[in-house]
């Protein structure tokens, strides 16, 4: 009479798996072809097997179940490695930078400071073209100035903003100096296009 297979439970599981460790290691070494990778593979196999011991059917082939887990783990890792980029020097990792969110707030604050230092004529043209999205021709009609004057003001305003944001603007580059040929703003504070 053959003895009934004993049910496998946590106390017996550790003892039974010890019998298969050497064979698992040989199989892993054959697959990985690297001693340290084989050790990691066996370790991962034992961890996965222990985590899913409730899926093992008592009386079935423990060795075959462990070998299946080892083989599937090896091929899953191999597929993951194919998608990974080799980066021994850290070149690609160095390019993956996430800037803190506060940087954008600081940049916006710097822009607003520089924008407020522009003359009113320059602020108007930047607002119409850069913010509202109007063409230079449309903005010139709205402001009641020639197209060339609008383009010139826009160019100077952009240059002044760029210099102020780069930190290369001389102290007198920005300010509320009058622009040649500029109309005076109405006394009520309203602009002609409002």
CATH class categorisation of the largest domain: Mainly Alpha
The CATH superfamily name of the largest domain is RNA polymerase sigma factor, region 2, helix turn helix motif
Rough outline: rod-shaped
Helix count, DSSP H or I runs of 4 or more residues: 9
- Count of discrete structural domains: 2
Rounded average pLDDT:
81
Written account of the structure:
- Helix 3 packs across helix 4 (62-83) and helix 7 packs across helix 8 (136-143).
- The chain is mainly α.
- The chain has helices at residues 10-18, 21-32, 35-51, 62-83, 91-95, 102-116, 120-131, 136-143, 147-166.
- It is rod-shaped, with a radius of gyration of 37 Å.
- Helices cover 62% and strands 0% of the residues.
- It contains 9 helices and no strands.
Gist?
This protein is mostly helical.
List its salient traits:
194 residues; Rna Polymerase Sigma Factor, Chain: A; disordered N terminus; rod-shaped
Walk me through the topology.
Layout: H1 10-18, H2 21-32, H3 35-51, H4 62-83, H5 91-95, H6 102-116, H7 120-131, H8 136-143, H9 147-166
């Amino acid at each position: 009479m053959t003895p009934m297979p004993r049910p496998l439970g946590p106390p017996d599981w550790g003892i039974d798996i010890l019998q298969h460790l050497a064979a698992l290691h040989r199989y892993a070494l054959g697959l990985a072809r690297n001693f340290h990778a084989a050790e990691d593979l066996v370790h991962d196999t034992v961890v996965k097997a222990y985590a899913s011991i409730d899926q093992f059917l008592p009386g079935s082939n423990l060795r075959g179940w462990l070998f299946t887990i080892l083989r599937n783990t090896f091929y899953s890792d191999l597929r993951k490695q194919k998608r990974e980029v080799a980066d021994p020097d850290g070149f690609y990792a160095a390019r993956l930078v996430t800037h803190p969110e506060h940087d954008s707030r600081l940049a916006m604050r710097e822009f607003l400071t520089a924008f407020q230092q522009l003359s009113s004529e320059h602020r108007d043209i930047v607002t119409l073209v850069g913010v509202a999205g109007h063409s230079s021709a449309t903005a010139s009609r709205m402001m009641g100035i020639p197209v060339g004057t609008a383009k010139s003001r826009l160019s100077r305003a952009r240059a002044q903003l760029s210099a102020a944001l780069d930190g290369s603007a001389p102290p007198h580059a920005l300010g509320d100096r009058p622009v040649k040929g500029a109309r005076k703003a109405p006394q009520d504070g309203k602009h002609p296009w409002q």
